[in-house]
Amino acid sequence: MSRMRAALVALAVAGLGLAGTSPGWGAPVAWPGGSAVATADGSNVFGTNLSGLSFQSAGVVWAVKNGPGKAYRLVPDGAGWKPDPSGARTLRYANGKGDPDAEGVVATPDGIVVATERDNNDDNTSLLKVLRYDGSSSALTLNATREWNLTSDLPDVDPNSGLEAISWIPDTFLTAHGFRDERTGTTYNPAAYADHGAGLYFVGLEDNGTIYAYALNQSTSTYTRVATIPSGFAELMDLEFDPATGRLWAACDNGCQGRTTTLELNTTGKFAPTATYNRPAGMTNLNNEGFAISPTCTTGTKTVLWSDDNNTNNHALRRGTLPC
Ligand SMILES: [Ca+2]
Ligand SMILES: [Ca+2]
Ligand SMILES: [Ca+2]
Hints:
Strands 2, 3, 4, 5, 6 and 10 form a six-stranded mixed beta sheet that branches. 5% of the residues lie in helices and 43% in strands. The chain has helices spanning 6-14, 171-176, and strands spanning 38-39, 50-57, 60-65, 70-77, 80-83, 89-92, 100-108, 111-119, 129-133, 141-143, 146-149, 163-170, 180-181, 186-187, 199-205, 210-216, 223-230, 238-242, 247-251, 260-265, 271-277, 288-293, 301-308, 317-323. It is mainly beta. It has two helices and 24 strands. The radius of gyration is 18 Å and the shape is globular. It has a single domain (6-323), classed as Tachylectin-2, Chain A, CATH 2.115.10. The structure holds calcium ion (CA) (3 copies). One calcium ion binds next to β7. The site of one calcium ion has 10 residues, from β2, β7, β12 and β22.
């Protein structure tokens, strides 16, 4: 989503209590990293609608924009980031057509994988698709190399309240911590899901703040839902898995005062709440729809990035820190 719905969401969130999160999540506590936040892009590089972020490595970040659907490969620019010399890549569906409304992105061993909620050429129809792209391509228009249409497996939602968030968790982590497969009622067994790659995709639905874990068949476009997980929020804007801590982060926008929650695998193999954090004290209540954590820890600190859908003060990227 962009803009507009914040007032309604604020009302809905108020109904969940002061924390902005569901019961059981505890009161929000201070952001665990630095209170200072700085802009991390040049002035008006991206404009509005930057909604998803993911580190491919310490030196490459992917960002996606909803409307028109675009992806950017970002490289370091001093302490900030800038698009690589190729600039924006226009995104298309696998058939080479359409304008996928790209709200979330994750870089995985499968490719650059994007969560979309509709075709902007047909704004009135919800279309909840995960699209895979070849991030190594030099083409400026990228056709999806695989797409998964999750619409029939998810609740009916408004066309602008669909898939917002996506992350990926490796099978090695899930099996080491006894992740429970809700479909089979047993411990998750990767061998049960043919051609799904080396991990599961976790997508977030804006409309209900719920996270859905899927095995996505990388050669047939079929999929299987493996788990359904409350994020703690009534709406959800991004997901980020931090392998260093085993924490799955859920991020909400200005409708929840920019708070984040963390979930960790508990002794029953479920992702359960472990914390609710306020945004850093130095950041105003921005329409942040993208959130990513650097894989690199430097002298006890790692960088986090937010993308602001509203391009407030002509900046769409901001950086802060977490301890590591
Ligand atoms: Ca949208
Ligand atoms: Ca928003
Ligand atoms: Ca997003």
